[in-house]
């Protein structure tokens, strides 16, 4: 502290210049060293590496490690290395500056089994096939215009959900479990858009498609030896993982094969604006209109992707949003007032109404900030440098959006549910705001974002318009358990049970 008593005028400019040069030299040296450095690796155990530090909630485990080891660290799950990114600034470097270089993904043990070795969209590297499949998705299957064309499916399925809830109200004041209803809704919407039929139709004795997709999702998130200890992959035979994978895959393929056959034998003379994905793909192939060439296995893989990526994700987002609203009655009231004042005396909510529900949009964004799927996997093509650290070619990279969505310098009171924050923040779902990436960013970002948000907003607006929602008797808002469990996405650990009270007419 003595330095505080020095008179600045007696420090010679020469000494200042020398110390400045020395500091610059140090910094330059450091920067040069970092260029060739690997990021820090948390202390790890032999064989299992850092697996024990992940805990049962890996996004949190990785977040706590990043607090100590920095926004870019290198962890080992078993013998497999992963680079973990936990800041929006670095995520931007990945998906903006080096988007192409980070646009690979790796195939997991489960994805190899489920897609029987065929390429799909989610797990394929950035290859000629992936670019074709991505073009098909973005331009044909999930474009804004196409989502508009199957908005009637969303409306019809939500109307059925409302009827089910009304029916349950006859019991007078009993709580219903919303998670299962939302999963049924999301399954049926995706199933009708993709295959032209409901999930529960025509299970062929192999279980309904909804059940098979659930099994497939469980496989995708199960622990496998092959993933983390490639030399022990034979153990996946002993655990029954491989057998279950093959059985689920076969049942799914039989189901999808049959639906495609049916479409070919009886091409539906449906309304030109109401084509399902199978129809769209088979017509494009037949008429060679798109230059897209896919094998039968590729088509089945792309269809399956829609279920794996598009059902559980939307359903759990709806459940989390309703849980946050039940936990925050003032916000519930504000969004409900907005919905009711915009819809007024009309008896049907339309897309046009939803577009005007500014606060509802904020509520959904905020819920996705806190609860969206949180770890995005990418793989590099070539050696590159990020944040001054070198990442070699073919490295697996994890972007922890859970951590990015809670960066304290970016988000005011980051752990709180505050939809208002989005009134002044121009974050969209396209990843323009690199601190807000529920649907990822860059060329591998989610092509189903518009579909998902349309479905979530329409379902929520209807639930809020037609019902008031109360907690089960005797439960206070503070007591609502918000702990999570992790499958492919973050789920509420305890199912959300609320009491619907029909709106007075
Ligand atoms: C709330 C709902 C959803 C969320 C939060 C979500 C989130 C994501 C995220 C984070 C990714 C990875 C992005 C990246 O690597 O940068 C992704 C990829 C993907 N999503 Fe979604 N998604 C949702 C719904 C949907 C829906 C409804 C569909 C289709 C029906 C869909 C289809 C896909 C596909 C095909 C990919 C892989 C894209 C590729 O690798 O090129 N998603 N999603």
UniProtKB/TrEMBL annotation:
Q: Which residues form the signal peptide?
A: none
Q: Which GO terms describe its molecular function?
A: heme binding; iron ion binding; monooxygenase activity; oxidoreductase activity, acting on paired donors, with incorporation or reduction of molecular oxygen
Q: Which cofactor does it need?
A: heme
- Record flagged with keyword Ribonucleoprotein: no
Any Pfam family the entry gives: p450
Binding residues for heme: 446
- InterPro entries reported for this sequence: Cyt_P450 (IPR001128), Cyt_P450_CS (IPR017972), Cyt_P450_E_grp-I (IPR002401), Cyt_P450_sf (IPR036396)
**Which keywords does the record carry?**
Heme, Iron, Metal-binding, Monooxygenase, Oxidoreductase
Name the family.
Belongs to the cytochrome P450 family.
Q: What is this protein called?
A: Cytochrome P450
